[in-house]
Description:
Chain A is an alpha/beta fold. Chain A is 39% helix and 25% strand. Chain A has 3 domains: 6-36 and 129-178 and 291-365, 3-Layer(bba) Sandwich (FAD/NAD(P)-binding domain), CATH 3.50.50; 182-285, 2-Layer Sandwich (D-Amino Acid Oxidase, Chain A, domain 2), CATH 3.30.9.90; 370-434, no CATH class. In chain A, strands 1, 2, 7, 8, 9, 10, 16 and 17 form an 8-stranded mixed β-sheet that branches. A 7-stranded mixed β-sheet of chain A has the order 5-4-12-13-14-11-15. A two-stranded antiparallel ribbon of chain A has the order 3-6. The relative contact order of chain A is 0.15. Chain B has 3 helices and 6 strands. Chain B has a domain at 30-97: Alpha-Beta Plaits, CATH 3.30.70. In chain B, the strands form 3 sheets. Chain B has a two-stranded antiparallel ribbon. A two-stranded antiparallel sheet of chain B has the order 2-5. At the A-B interface, helix 4, strand 11, helix 7, helix 8 and strand 15 of A face helix 1, helix 2, helix 3 and strand 6 of B. Chain A: Belongs to the ETF-QO/FixC family.
Amino acid sequence: MIEEKFDAIVIGAGMAGNAAALTMAKRGMKVLQLERGEYPGSKNVQGAILYADMLEKIVPDFREEAPLERHIVEQRFWMMNDTSHVGLQYRSDDFNEERPNRYTIVRAQFDKWFSKEVQKAGALVLCETTAIELVQNPQGKVMGVRTDRKGGEVHADVVVLAEGVNGLLGTRAGLRERPAPENVALAVKEMHFLPRETIEARFNLNGDEGVVIEAAGTISKGMTGVGFIYTNKESISIGLGCLVSDLKATGQTPYGLLEAFKRHPSVARLIEGSEVKEYAAHLIPEGGYNAIPQLYGDGWVVVGDAAQLNNAVHREGSNLAMTSGRIAGEAIFQIKSRKEPMTADNLKLYRKMLDDSFVMKDLKKYKDMPALLHTSSKNFFLTYPELIAKAMQTYVRVDGVPKLDKEKATVKSFKSARSLTGLVGDAFRFARAWR
Amino acid sequence: MVEPPKVDEPRVEDKLFQNRYLVDAGRPHVKIRAHIEPSPELLALIKICPARCYELNAKGQVEVAPDGCMECGTCRVIAEPTGDIEWGYPRGGYGVLFKFG
Ligand SMILES: Cc1cc2nc3c(=O)[nH]c(=O)nc-3n(C[C@H](O)[C@H](O)[C@H](O)COP(=O)(O)OP(=O)(O)OC[C@H]3O[C@@H](n4cnc5c(N)ncnc54)[C@H](O)[C@@H]3O)c2cc1C
Ligand code: SF4
């Protein structure tokens, strides 16, 4: 396909791949990037919240050019039962700052822009090209990749696997396992279009201010799962994700759950009258720290979702992907500058630099959370939301029942749904996993 | 047997209709191993596939028609380990094309 040898081949033009390719190309390295979609972003799905800090480290003045939707001034957390929600809401005018901290984006548009930056820096980006397998020498060192193009082999000193959650190349070569059903969530998402004035009125927004809502409760029917509603300029992203192992066990359909979420009275009024223009589905890595595979080897490194670098507790993924891509690029550049070969021993530097970053520190902090939420999903996603909603209703409804009786009834309902030891145990386990 | 969808279950076809696809005719990227009795994994795909690519045929076997596939990988995670399906990506440029993502 292409005879010349590259310093690096990057598989994938998503968040991680673009960060890696840009980091290396900017430093004068000869980079080839392969993307299977018609254009970068055409295969990618996200909520999507963009975290500015991590992108600023890669493209300092991104705010001037990048397609951004709204900067987020308000975050809502909803705990839902079938007819109501109990919410926590944080809004601050501090977020109307000169360099906002978080934005909503539309991935297909954002990735196109990000990829242009990569091309401007001098990398060769080939779209409509699926990498089929890694080319390895008899000792197992990765020498390049085979693609679905004519005569499709290309070679490089190092291959950066930024291929996303499914990670076909790495799993086919036996470098890591395919994700297990209990370590990935299936998310489905729709784009609902409304005039911007309608969105601003419904969400109480001025200009480019934005709101994001994260929702949990009976909407996931006892499965580990959450819903989200994010405001864009002229559209609302709405979606819901549940662990694949849970969906498999319950036989719930993902679109059925999304439809029920949309029909919930708290949600329906927000999207009423909208025009739906897209329905998308994608996996999200949820295994956390304990699911992270081997991250480097002779002639290769793996970054982003392919490496399960995703913080499900905080709904952060793209920023971990970008940061791991950037760090991999910097590590590779350092090794190359020293004129040393891309051996596993040298590429260990990537792991070391990643360990020192927020990526590994955050994932380590929550290493016990995925297992806890998984084993106690019924309590956290069904029983507690029901109890809390009922307690709230009892608390606010004025009906002549003395307040003390109401409190007693609430405590009793908690205890009977979940024994006192169960409640204390859950709280304790939750606190430990959070710490 | 798989129960028919409830009345208020949305028609996935209507949802997929919003999406853009470039179908690689004659080259399905997901294939099912021939079987007489479907495994529990194959049966699970009928419900879990967000594009409803898997259906039960008249003989009680599971069939796949991946034209509306969104390439999420869920069926792969469930049924590739058991050998029930063969899963890959469509050729470069083919398959689903998200305008928003
Ligand atoms: C519904 C949903 C909501 C989310 N919300 C948020 C959020 O609000 N904020 C946040 O930070 N994160 C969010 N995430 C997570 C975030 O999207 C991911 O963590 C991030 O996209 C990972 O980046 P990546 O580059 O590793 O993978 P991807 O972005 O998936 O990119 C992988 C790229 O590789 C290409 N590719 C794969 N295989 C090949 C191959 N063999 N040959 C050629 N090209 C290939 C793909 O086409 C793709 O472009 C969300 C995810 C989902 C699904
Ligand atoms: S990859 Fe996803 S959308 Fe495609 S057939 Fe499998 S489960 Fe269905």
